[in-house]
């Protein structure tokens, strides 16, 4: 199991997976080495995504470099064993064939996007461990369909980003607030156009509980889905349509929102 704060675990052989990311990082380093035109840059980002049907969740890791990039001819062969464009002694041509094999064995995949002279993004998808998943019977037809307006009140940028992208991909219109004070302002601005609030409980400036207390007076009909690590909510009122544990999985997020909207 490999776990990162804010992301669910993936299951697999730790040494093989380490090899995967090491190979990708070494290639990125080779690609930026000797770069003159611009300062070398390698970015590694991990986040959580759902497959198109919203049925399975994957941890996605992207390794992006602004190095040499590759031609289409090269990019078509990079996963072949022993294919290398490097000098003898510098490359074995085995790195990416190992990456390809290991990700497949783990139920995932690897993708390459490259622009010659500009850089490369390698993307690894690994399925979220079923050991940490509660089985969810998922009906894609019941996902939010598009006209919903949802406000996310959350102080962690990473969570805001992931949740925002999941909802936008489903066609929801998403607004963001970074704390309770901003959240209440947005709720007032959005008025009746707002369908649902996703609320984090532990935030600086004004806690989620205080937001709930105010809303119970000003907008008691507005459904709120609460992100929380614990279930003992002081203000468990009719306002709170559902609780969502963190880290949230895309399929569970969408299902919970659908249910909360359906309760109206
Ligand atoms: N980030 C990258 N930028 C540019 N080219 C890359 C990158 N990653 C892989 N390649 C190309 O793919 C080829 C195969 O990579 P790999 O299988 O790791 O073997 P090796 O690194 O030993 O050459 C490399 O020789 C190189 O041409
Ligand atoms: Mg390599």
Uncertain residue segments = 132-138
Question: Per DSSP, what share of the residues sits in E-state strands of 2 or more residues?
Answer: 15-25%
Order of strands, widest sheet: 8-7-9-10-11
Helices, by number, come to 7
The proportion of residues forming helix, as a percent range, comes to: 25-40%
Question: What is the C-alpha radius of gyration, as a whole number of Å?
Answer: 22 Å
Notable features of this structure?
264 residues; 4-stranded antiparallel beta sheet; binds adenosine-5'-diphosphate; alpha/beta; 25% strand; 5-stranded parallel beta sheet; 7 helices; Heat Shock Protein 90; binds magnesium ion; Rossmann fold; 11 strands; 2 domains
Write a brief structural summary.
The protein has 7 helices and 11 strands. By secondary structure, it is an alpha/beta fold. The longest helix has 19 residues.
